[in-house]
Amino acid sequence: MIYLDNAATSYPKPPEVIRAMAGVTEKLGGNPGRGGHLGALAGGRIMEACREAAAEYTGVSGPEKVIFCLNCTDALNMAIRGTLHAGDEVLVSYAEHNAVMRPLIGCHDAGQITLRILPPDERGILTPETVSAAIGPRTALCVLCHASNVTGIIQPARDIARACHSQGVPLLLDAAQTAGTEELAPIGADMIAMPGHKGLLGPMGTGLLCLSGQIVPRPFRAGGTGSVSDSLRQPDMLPDRLESGTANLPGIAGLLQGLRFVRRHRAALREYEHQLAERLSEGLMNMPGVTVYRGPADVPHAAVVSFRLDGMDSGRAADELNKRRIAVRGGLHCAPSVHAYLGSEGAVRASPGPFSTERDVDALLLAVSDLAR
User: Fold this and answer.
1) What is the CA radius of gyration of the chain?
2) 297-342 pLDDT, tens per residue?
3) Which of 126, 139, 140, 323 sits most deeply, having the most CB atoms within 10 A of its CB?
4) CATH code, 67
5) Which of 233, 261, 289 is the C-terminal boundary of a domain?
6) In this structure, are strands 305-309 and 347-350 parallel, antiparallel, or unpaired?
């Protein structure tokens, strides 16, 4: 199988990620925070090391501000539902994923918040000026998709964060497509949500919410934390305030190794994936009967290339490629707002990763050329 679906989940994983997960499951008996024996303490050290690595990568002030989540969607829900109050206004970009839009629309439909979707410029960029002009007296939060999972366009998050902060509005950054390849610390976002299983090369079922500002969300769920057990109320201190129940220790052990891998190789990984995406994009753009959905060349992109074949439904095209043992994704990619903006009813998305090759890209180009004919 030629795997070009890394925007959905990265594959394969580095060998050290797999070894770490297997090692915890096979050799480490203990529940972190639920015992003082060697196994529980060793598990706690793995969790703390993972927090420290994530804190250093994202620039948050301490490991306690790194919250383990089920995935990026869970982290976004935690940030959104734990931050907003009745009467608040929320600003979002046009390129948001359903992981952002569905929680916000739910709050909007319940009459709790108002929602403003901000348009991009002609390049597909949400400008800081647009954000500044939209901020009003009830604006309580701006949520920004750092990079579209359809077009790959990377938004000027650092400038948007400054525009928000100049008027006292916090920024929640959805780094689902940029964590692991882009620098996140310099952005200055107040909250950063990210999956563990994509660019960070960890396993599924892992995610992080990193709190770099003064905002501390209200608990999204409550329960046992292994701390302050004499109280029936959720602890106030981080990370316990936002983490209840047994942690996914094998997943966190794998995520730690994924974080270490991408931090050692981040710049090289970004350049390599970018080169593969550009090779793919250029090849598709020169192909009759194929439309590529990507921003201008001078706009930064994640390694995501979406396209359609004239006269062929994107789902059927993806199925045809699957028959040729090429893994891509067809459809709306849980981002219908982006497709509406593009005038698209769906697209085929290819997303190379760190273990993809030029041969993989060329095989996809050959297969698409055959389908286009």
Assistant:
1) 21
2) 899 999 999 999 999 999 999 999 999 999 999 999 999 999 999 9
3) 126
4) 3.40.640.10
5) 261
6) antiparallel
